[in-house]
Structures are given as C-alpha cells and as structure tokens.
Amino acid sequence: MELDYDVVGVQGLNAEAVALLRPRVNVSAKGEVPVTLQIFRIRIPCSGLVSAEIPMALRLNVSAPPGTRYNDTTLILRRNKICLKGVEAPPSNDSIRLEAGPLMNGTGAFYIAAICACALILVIGSVTSALYIRNSKARVQESQKTLPCCSYSAAGTGGLTGSSVLVRVDHRPGSANSGSYATIADLEPLYARPCGSRASYYAASHVTNVSQTTDPCDKARAMAIPRSALYCRSLVQEGTFGRVYKGTLNVAGRDQEVIIKTVTEVASAYQASLLVVEGSQLAGLVHGNIASLVAACLDSPCPLLAYSSSSNELNLKTYLTDGVHHPVTRDLVNVSVQVARAGAFLHGRGLLHRDIAARNCLIEPSNLRVRLADAALARDLFPQDYHCLGDNENRPIRWMAVESLQHNQYSTATDVWSFGVFLWELVTMGGQPYVEVDPFEMMACLRDGYRLVQPRPCPDELFAVMAVCWLGIARDRPTMPQLLAYLQEFHDALGGFI
C-alpha cells in the first residue's frame, strides 16, 4: 500500500491566513506504509501577528495498489488551532515531544496505527450493521406476536427502556408494503374524508424556500424593557453558559408570571446574540399553544428574554423523564394534538420551526396544556440532543429529515419529520431516538431506509402517523394540518373506550 496525505490549510478570513505560518512536516508527501510502528510530526506554527481561532483539517489518504480487493481509505482529522497575538509558538510540552526518527527519508511516510484504525473501523461497522439487521428482525417479530391490533395501553407503564432498534423500510418503487410500516395510503381514508369546517386543512400543501423577511432581533428590540422590570425568582435549568429562571415581569404596576432565559458572564458575545436571535423566532405570535416572547432586556452583555408562563409549567422533556408523571395514551395524543395545532398555525403563516422536539415544549401537569416554544438555549441545556459533524454547527441530528442532513434543505415537510420523532419521544416517555446510531452515520442510515421501530406501548394507529412523517420523499408526507385533523379524531375515538 501507499500513503498520500494532505494538510488542508486555512480557508476563510484574511486574519486567519495571517495568523498561521506554513505547516512543517517531518515526513515526505508520499511513500509506502511502514510495517513497524513509526511516528511523524506536523507543526502548524503561529505568526504572532493576530489572534484567531482557525478550523484545521488533516486528510490522510491510504491508497491500495491497483487491481487489489482492498478499498482506498481517507481519514479526516479536524481540530481548531488557536493563535494569540504576540505569541509565535505554543508553550513546549515535554510529555508529548515527538522525535523525528527515521521518517525524514523518502520511503517512510506513516505508522501502522493508521491501518489498524481503518481495519478496526471497518470491522466495527460490519459487526454493527449485522447486529442492526438481526436485532431489528427479532424485535419486529416479537412485537407482531405480542401486540394486539389496537393496543390502547398506558404509555407510562413500566418496562419501557426507550430502545430505538431500527427497522428497514423497503422504499423501492412498486414494492409491496411489508405490514410493519405504514404508507400515506393507510392514513388517507382517515384524514381525507369531508369534515365541514376542516376542509381547509386538506387543501394545505408543503411550503419550501421559506425565508425570514425581517431581522429577528428587531422583534426583540420592539419588546425592550428596563432591567428593573424583570425579577429572577428561582433557577429552573442551568447549562454551561445558559440559565432559565422562574420570575415576574412588572408592567404598569402589575406582576406577570414569566419564564426568563439568559446567559451567564462566561458566555461569549456570539452565544448571547444567538439567544436573542433564536428567542425572537416566535415573537409577536398569539396562539394558545405557542410560548412567544413577551419582553426582552437587551441593555447588558447578558440579555434576558421573558415568556409568559404559569407557576407550575415544566419543560416537556423533563416532565416525561422525571419518573413522577404517568400519562396514559389518550393524554399523550392530547399533547400531540396541541403541538400539531401550533405547527399548523406556524405553517399557515409561512413560518418554520426547524426544531420540533419535547425539549422545546412546555407543559402544565395539572391540565396537560402544552405550548411549543423556540429553541433558545436548547443546545446548552440538552447537549446530548445536538451534535456537530465537523462543521462547528450543533444541530438536532436525530430529529432532522433526510433531505436536511443531505442537502441542508428545510420546509414544512422537514418540520413534519421532526414532529414524527416528537411523537416517538412521547410514546417512549422521553426516550432518545436512534440511540444506537452514531451521529456521523445518521444520514447514511436514513438514506438506506432505516427508521425507528414501533415502541411496545404504542398503538398501531399512532405509529402509522409516525411512519408517514418519515417517508423519504418530502411531498409524500402529510401536512401539519392533516396530521392535526387525524390526531384530533384519534383522540376523540380513544375517549369512546373510557
């Protein structure tokens, strides 16, 4: 085998280019992979002229000889290089000093650990794929034996682990439905029947290329209030740099119960501005199932955003996972109806949410009133739900539609996909979707037709809703108003069994 490597340089701002000097490598550009352990070193010195944080990428290309059965392998290692003005080189660290050794000659190029890593990745991938297929088949067969056709069991009963073993959907044209996964045709008789005043629901279609016409920060500025009008009473949630308080808002001498989102002094200016941008997403909207911004204090490095609330309102994900509350299936369907109503309201006004999930909803346990909120601070408060795929952008990978992962496309249909994962969260009492899948493999997993399997306490009718939300072709998915109509009818039908 031969090794070819590239050091990908800085791309972007001129300041970043000035901050770095040319990389220094004590290994030739090409050579044969050694059969014994050897070490090479790459130094990326700073110029000391400016301060900058530069994303770096080291690409290692391991090429197989032509005509062999081995595949070429590429390893990409990404790191951020920090350079400080006035500091030309980082402090020395004797514990990690690398000697040049024999790799200065033209034939030495790399060490055998790279090949071992490649082989290990291939072996793990093969074994994992085999386990996915075997476990999925076993799980589907077991659920077909144990689940009745219409199971209206309580979704909060014990024994649910939240496991999301996958099932593969045969999405080839002309293929027969396997019976374990629904298609849009399964819901068509339910949401397409005439319903009088609901007729407008069925005329709705998916909207793409939705654009933000105004600066979201302008909405927050329009709601600006003095700092003295907000009082943070008790801490509810805390992350690395974000905090959520219960508090009061004093307007015209009257106190109003609010939830207050803010950042701490350790937050960067970017994190503070991101709070304002995301917190303004639903500002100005008036709807019973939407938690919109009511006031903002922007006259300090730590902005405060206030949302109307009740004294006992909880984050929905916290409500589902605390082990205290045990809603039955009809209660969970009621929750889904309210979130679908909020989604239909947004889509009807040409707005996308882009992050529909339990963590971005609020619930009153006493009456199960639910409101869809924005995603401000969600990345900090629920870091396990967001992942960065090497592009310095944390995204809710496990809630995203396949076209969003592949092409960064967003539409009302991608919100519908996220809503399907949200339904799965409800039934599993806050379970983590696709927990067995590495975030870097999510796009390939969805593209190859794998989806979440039906949870054990989930009625077939409710899982059919999830299934059509995850159809690979965006236009084949139902609209949010159609989902609202079906879920409302399903909720009413469940009431007939009580």
From TrEMBL:
SMART domains: TyrKc (SM00219). GO terms for biological process: axonogenesis; cell surface receptor protein tyrosine kinase signaling pathway; positive regulation of neuron projection development; positive regulation of phosphatidylinositol 3-kinase/protein kinase B signal transduction. This is Tyrosine-protein kinase RYK. GO terms for cellular component: plasma membrane; receptor complex. GO terms for molecular function: ATP binding; protein tyrosine kinase activity. Residues 1-83 form the WIF domain. The chain crosses the membrane at residues 109-133. It comes from the Eukaryota. Residues 230-494 form the Protein kinase domain. Pfam families: PK_Tyr_Ser-Thr (PF07714), WIF (PF02019). InterPro entries: Kinase-like_dom_sf (IPR011009), Prot_kinase_dom (IPR000719), RTK (IPR050122), Ser-Thr/Tyr_kinase_cat_dom (IPR001245), Tyr_kinase_AS (IPR008266), Tyr_kinase_cat_dom (IPR020635), WIF (IPR003306), WIF_sf (IPR038677). Keywords: Glycoprotein, Membrane, Signal, Transmembrane, Transmembrane helix. Signal peptide: none annotated.
